[in-house]
Amino acid sequence: MTPLISVxxxxxxxxxxxxxxxxxxxxxxxxxxxxxxxxxxxxxELDGSPFAFVGANSYWLPLLTSxxxxxxxxxxxxxxxxxxxxxxxxxxxxxxxxxxxxxSNLTYYQIWNNSDWTLNDGPQGLQRLDNVLEVAxxxxxxxxxxxxxxxxxxGGLELYIEHITPGASFHDVFYTNPQIQASYQRYVxxxxxxxxxxxxxxxxxxxxxxxxxxxxxxxxxxSPGSGTLGRFYKDQSDFVRSLDPHHLITTGGEGxxxxxxxLFASDYNFNGQAGEDFDYDLTLPNIDFATYHMYPQTWYxxxxxxxxxxxxxxxxxxxxxAHANAAKKAAKPLVLEEFGVNGLDNxxxxxxxxxxxxxxxxxGGVMPWQFGMLGLTEDGGNRLIKYADALIDGASPNxxxxxxKNQTVWNIFV
Length: 414
Ligand SMILES: *[C@@H]1O[C@H](CO)[C@@H](O)[C@H](O)[C@H]1NC(C)=O
Ligand SMILES: *[C@@H]1O[C@H](CO)[C@@H](O)[C@H](O)[C@H]1NC(C)=O
Ligand SMILES: *[C@@H]1O[C@H](CO)[C@@H](O)[C@H](O)[C@H]1NC(C)=O
Ligand SMILES: *[C@@H]1O[C@H](CO)[C@@H](O)[C@H](O)[C@H]1NC(C)=O
Ligand SMILES: *[C@@H]1O[C@H](CO)[C@@H](O)[C@H](O)[C@H]1NC(C)=O
Ligand SMILES: *[C@@H]1O[C@H](CO)[C@@H](O)[C@H](O)[C@H]1NC(C)=O
What we know:
Layout: H1 2-19, E1 37-40, E2 43-46, E3 49-51, E4 53-57, H2 67-80, E5 84-88, E6 92-94, H3 98-103, E7 110-113, E8 116-119, H4 126-138, E9 142-146, H5 157-164, H6 173-176, H7 178-195, E10 201-205, H8 228-243, E11 248-250, H9 278-282, E12 290-294, H10 296-299, H11 312-330, E13 334-339, H12 344-360, E14 365-366
Parallel strand pairs: 4-5, 4-14, 5-9, 6-7, 9-10, 10-11, 12-13, 13-14
Antiparallel strand pairs: 1-2, 2-3, 7-8
Helix pairs in contact: 1-11, 2-4, 7-8, 11-12
């Protein structure tokens, strides 16, 4: 991957120059009710004024059982300057997990049994999400809600696959099987109808990090150029638009490119193998803005080591520029909706230059992964949420990327 990148960089610089011409799409604006965020060309707009934001990722907020903790977290986000929160609009368990979930006061919205799921809209279910949205509204924070997860965490695609097509060997059956699509749409419809009149929803997101592969591998059919994910995004964004004329819709994708450039033939982020085609997906009429993610240390373990041509910071700047150019060409807003590096020193030295580039390239939003909260009261601060994401001494879960108020890098939110 790395040897090709320096060549690629000059290629990108040329593209950037070419893209500085007129944006190809029209600068139209969709009329929405007061208080709803919309887009105008490559900018977000709220009640006629440009709207840009620093946001927070917090998948764990709807999992809290203390409404007081939800309130204090949202108050902290507000005082840090957070205007948009991204969280999961899904949370599924299976029938054999139900007894344990009830006993431990776990949040769950869907219970899978045999080939179908039932909804939990009770106090341990969607009422917790209702509460998160209500409190968000009180603190003038808008919410991006994802409908499902490419990964198994909190009940993603693999639960649909296991229950509807048991024994299936490939992850991408999710995107093509009509019964799975119908089941996903039944859930999407439930969520959209529940909140579609609320200006607190910033946007609907089709999927967190959709790829051809997940915990199961990709089949040969979900190959670069197959358009599998593009068709999924098209069908599902059209479906959501048919239910809800006003809210913004986006993919939730990581921003993989399909550049068809031999220089990138072996680079997963650029060769289309992941399934995404960032440029194509942005041309879809009901994909209103672009999202991408950034974890260079995980993706390229050789960065920052002797002989490498890129630092972690430098590769990030390259990735950001590539997305800024593509979004500019499509004349749609761009959100860096997840990013992270490990280590407090790394965060403190690298994040400022990434944020500066986001400002310089007029990103519509920047959302670090992930918001850290101190002083939570829940169960003495030691309740195991799920998948080993514990609250320790009142601190929200830390996967190595959390940013807490006791750290100078917290200024990123401010
Ligand atoms: C379960 O969670 C609810 C909030 O959703 C809370 O009011 C209740 O006290 C919790 N119950 C227990 C036993 O922790
Ligand atoms: C339900 O989930 C549990 C724990 O995550 C797992 O061990 C079990 O195999 C699942 N059962 C079914 C029927 O999917
Ligand atoms: C799951 O389905 C089986 C068979 O239909 C039924 O006996 C069982 O009660 C169901 N479990 C739950 C939790 O709904
Ligand atoms: C760095 O770039 C040089 C010159 O293009 C190349 O020969 C070398 O293999 C690259 N090193 C790494 C680790 O990618
Ligand atoms: C900081 O980044 C470097 C380069 O990726 C990595 O080797 C190092 O482990 C990171 N530091 C911490 C504490 O994670
Ligand atoms: C800040 O709080 C976190 C979470 O409790 C803790 O792990 C960390 O040591 C504290 N201090 C600093 C400087 O990060």
